[in-house]
Specification:
Number of strands: 0
Oligomer: single chain
Number of helices: 3
Distance between the termini: 15 Å
Order of helices and strands: HHH
């Protein structure tokens, strides 16, 4: 269980970190770091932070990103648990 949890957090962080960079670029208007197709791929990773950031500012965007990280980790953990259960 601990191994699956660690793997799910690492995999979700690998997806979440670039999404947070894109969100930061959108909020600060620094310009586009990644190409358009990567921005589209990363959209589920920053949409909650973007919505909360537009409503409540930068702190709300950070809270949205933390919630998104937890949701993505839970989804990956569920998929890994199902895979292990089906493998038996």
């Amino acid at each position: 269980m601990t191994r699956r949890l660690t793997i799910s957090i690492l995999l979700s962080f690998i997806y979440w970190f670039p999404a947070t960079i894109v969100l930061h670029d959108i909020i600060t208007d620094d310009g586009i770091v990644f190409s358009n197709w990567i921005d589209t791929f990363l959209m589920p990773g920053y949409i909650l932070g973007l919505i909360l950031g537009l409503v409540g500012g930068n702190f709300a965007a950070i809270i949205g990103q933390v919630i998104t990280l937890a949701i993505i980790s839970a989804i990956i953990f569920g998929l890994l648990s199902r895979y292990k259960r089906d493998k038996k």
